[in-house]
Amino acid sequence: MSFYEKVKDFNGFNFNNFFNSITEEKIEHILVKDRVNEEDFLSLLSPKAEKYLEEMAQIAHDISINNFGRAILLYTPMYLSNYCVNKCLYCGYNVENGIRRKKLALGEVEVEAKAIYEMGYRHILILTGESRKHSPISYIKDCVKILKKYFSSIAIEIYPLEEDEYRELICSGVDSLTLYQEVYDEDTYKSVHVAGAKSNYKYRLDAPERAAKAKIHSLSIGALLGLEDWRKEAFFTGLHGKYIEKNYPDIELTLSTPRIRPHAGSFEYVREVTDKNIVQAMLAYKIFIHRAGINITTRERAEFRDNLLPLGVTKMSASVSTEVGGHSNNEKGDKQFEIDDSRNLEDIKFAIKAKGYHHIFKDWEPI
Ligand code: SF4
After folding, report:
1. Which of 126, 77, 81, 125 is closest to 99 using CA atoms?
2. Nearest C-alpha to atom 7 of ligand 1 is from which residue?
3. Pairwise pLDDT comparison (147 vs 87), residue with the higher score
4. In the chain, where the domains are located
5. Ligand 1 atom 5 nearest Cα
6. DSSP at 73
């Protein structure tokens, strides 16, 4: 059985009827439980639970302190290439967008790596647009070989791979995978991924599990909030996380709440996701899966990110450039989307300290 079967179980399920059936008594009953089940989790994502965000925040805070302490891991992404063969309607790298395309030569990767290392980072996330032709596995491996000289943890955010290919990259030095399903609703998925390999919903959905079978150390999953009803999308993200946790208990799991941002091209069908909605999703995740980390990226504005810290955040990106070569190169490739929190690293470290937390640059080193 794959997680796809689990998603299929909810075909025809009437989420609105379920949400309408939730009472305040039910939420109060859930909030005194040590462990919540799937139905409880969905209830915590309901409109009725909005009244209980303060109580949920206290519970999520306690769970997070017990499992992660007050450490916030800082990492930064490095964009290797913005060539892409897909036509995701919500993304600046869409093959039909007339942006300046660039792929880093290996010498440029080294320069970029040095620039990031000198800032203090020891965990790096490398990204490419989804093009096997422009960024084949051999290229990723060559880049990893260089990056290993500088970083203790190398995460990838690239096109979905076969299990053997994940194994090959893990052997070369990759330890973490970030792979967002973007949208769990299969019909909406097909309507926003209109062509290219990414239009294969199930192949993408099963990719984190293929990486888990290949023995990846750490997995980061999530839905791009704004493409569908966020309550349903957060529910399936949580179920996906629970599925990974249950079947691959050794994996370090992180859930993300990326929200759609302005980008090259125009996508008109964005569903509203408020700050309050993001908070509710985060809290429900933490209460449902105690040992899942939470990642908040620079897609969100500075003040909001700072206020989220005590609610269970464990990882933050910083010094982000979504341009290829954005940390060092004079001739950059165009960016994927606009970030919101553009503070420098020192300001982010200061903000973390001001909230009573401490930043770390490293929590993993391969044997
Ligand atoms: S979301 Fe990914 S696959 Fe889609 S256009 Fe952007 S880079 Fe390409």
Report:
1. 81
2. 129
3. 147
4. 3-360
5. 94
6. E
Distance CA 304, CA 302 (A): 5
**Residue 151, ligand 1, Cβ within 6 A:** no
Distance 5 CA to ligand 1 centre (A): 26
pLDDT tens for 147-200 read 999 999 999 999 999 999 999 999 999 999 999 999 999 999 999 998 888 999
Do residues 179 and 204 touch, judged by C-beta distance below 8 A?
A: yes
Ligand 1 neighbourhood includes 88 CB (under 6 angstroms): yes
Top-confidence residue, 319 or 263: 319
Tell me the per-residue pLDDT of 6-39, one tens digit each, with 9 for 90 and over.
999 999 999 999 999 999 999 999 999 999 999 9
**Cα(254) to centroid of ligand 1, in Å?**
21
Residue 206 CA neighbour count, 13 Å, CB half: 13
- Mark out the alpha helices in 173-270 (DSSP H runs): 186-192, 201-205, 207-213, 230-247
Give me the DSSP letters along 275-295.
Answer: HHHHHHHHHHHHHH-TT-EEE
Q: CATH number of 3-360: 3.20.20.70, 3.30.710.10, 3.40.50.300, 3.40.50.620? A: 3.20.20.70
Mean of pLDDT over the chain: 94
Atom in ligand 1 nearest the alpha carbon of residue 84: 8
Instruction: State if residue 130 touches ligand 1 by the CB under 6 angstroms criterion.
Output: yes
Q: How many CB atoms lie within 10 A of CB 306?
A: 21
Q: Measured in angstroms, how far is the CA atom of residue 104 from the centroid of ligand 1?
A: 18
What is the whole-number distance in angstroms between the Cα of residue 198 and the centre of ligand 1? Answer: 8
- Provide the pLDDT confidence category of residue 98 given band limits of 50, 70 and 90: confident
Q: Measured from the CB, is residue 125 less than 6 Å from ligand 1?
A: no
Which of 82, 83, 86, 99 for mutating ligand 1's site (highest number of atoms within 8 Å of CB)? 86
